[in-house]
Design a protein that fits this description.
Elements lengths: L10 E6 L1 H4 L3 E2 L2 E2 L1 H8 L5 E6 L5 H11 L4 H4 L2 E7 L16 H19 L5 E4 L6 H7 L9 H17 L3 E3 L1 H4 L19 H18 L23
Parallel strand pairs: 1-4, 1-5, 5-6, 6-7
Antiparallel strand pairs: 2-3
Length: 237
C-alpha cells in the first residue's frame, strides 16, 4: 500500500440511506450530492456515507465507524446532513419498519452521538422523508399494494422536524419541497420513492437555501456578487 499525503480541505459529510447513497446520481442524472460537490469545487470535499436499505437502527450501529474518533481534528468538518426515515416509515410488518416513537428517539440519539464525536460547532441538517407515489412504488416491485404510504411518510417527516427543533438542528423539508402536501409530485420521483433528476435538483436547492439563510459563512463564496463564504483553494487564473 502506498500512502499519499494530501492537503485536507474542509469536508461536508452526508449520512443517510439510499436517498443519500444515490445522491451522486443515476441514469445519467446528477444527484443532489453531486450538485453540492460541484457548488463546493475547490472549496470543500463532500463525503457521501449513504447506506441503501438502512433505517435509524442500522444507522446507530454504523455511526461509530462513520464518525470515527478524532474526525474533527483530522478533517475540518463544515456541516453534516442526516437523511433517514424513508425505510423506518415502511408499513408495520415490513423488514425495515421502525415504530414512529422509536424513530424519533433514534434520530435524537444520532444527532447527540454525532455531536459527541465532532463537537458542537458543525451544523447538523436533518431532512424529512420524501413523499411516496404509492401506485408507482408498488408497481416498481411488482406488488398489488405498496409497503409505504404517503400519509405515513408525512407523519415521520413531522417527527423529524420535531427532532430538529428539540436538538437545535436545521431542517430541509423534502416532503414539502417535492410537493407531497398537494399537487403532482410523481415527476420528482424515479420509482415512486427515490428521487428523479428534478427531485434531486429541488432537494439540492432546498439544502443550499438553508445553508445560505442560516450559515452564510459556510456557503461557497461568490466574489463577483461580493458574497463571502468558503473560498477557493489556490489562486484563480
Amino acid at each position: 500500500t502506498i500512502m499519499v499525503a494530501l492537503r485536507v480541505r474542509p469536508t461536508i459529510l452526508l449520512f443517510g440511506d439510499s436517498l443519500t447513497q444515490l445522491g451522486w446520481g443515476e441514469n445519467g442524472n446528477a444527484g443532489w450530492a453531486a450538485l453540492l460537490a460541484s457548488a463546493y469545487t475547490r472549496r470543500a470535499d463532500v463525503l457521501n456515507r449513504g447506506f441503501s436499505g438502512y433505517n435509524t437502527r442500522h444507522a446507530l450501529e454504523v455511526l461509530p465507524r462513520v464518525f470515527g474518533s478524532g474526525l474533527q481534528e483530522q478533517e475540518p468538518l463544515l456541516l453534516c446532513t442526516v437523511y433517514l426515515g424513508a425505510n423506518d416509515s415502511a408499513l408495520p410488518g415490513e423488514r425495515q419498519y421502525v415504530p414512529i416513537d422509536e424513530y424519533q428517539s433514534n434520530l435524537g440519539k444520532i444527532v447527540t452521538s454525532i455531536r459527541k464525536r465532532v463537537g458542537e460547532k458543525p451544523p447538523i441538517i436533518l431532512m424529512t422523508p420524501p413523499p411516496v407515489d404509492e401506485p408507482r412504488w408498488a408497481s416498481f416491485w411488482g406488488n398489488e399494494k405498496p409497503d409505504r404510504l404517503n400519509q405515513i411518510s408525512r407523519d415521520y417527516g413531522d417527527v423529524c422536524k420535531q427532532v430538529a427543533a428539540d436538538h437545535d438542528c436545521s431542517i430541509v423539508d423534502v416532503f414539502e419541497i417535492l410537493g407531497g402536501n398537494g399537487g403532482d409530485y410523481s415527476e420528482h420521483l424515479s420509482d415512486g420513492l427515490h428521487l428523479s433528476g428534478s427531485g434531486n435538483i429541488l432537494l439540492y436547492e432546498g439544502l443550499m437555501a438553508v445553508i445560505e439563510e442560516r450559515y452564510p459563512e459556510l456557503g461557497p463564496d461568490d466574489p463577483v456578487n461580493e458574497k463571502s463564504g468558503i473560498t477557493m483553494e489556490e489562486a484563480s487564473w
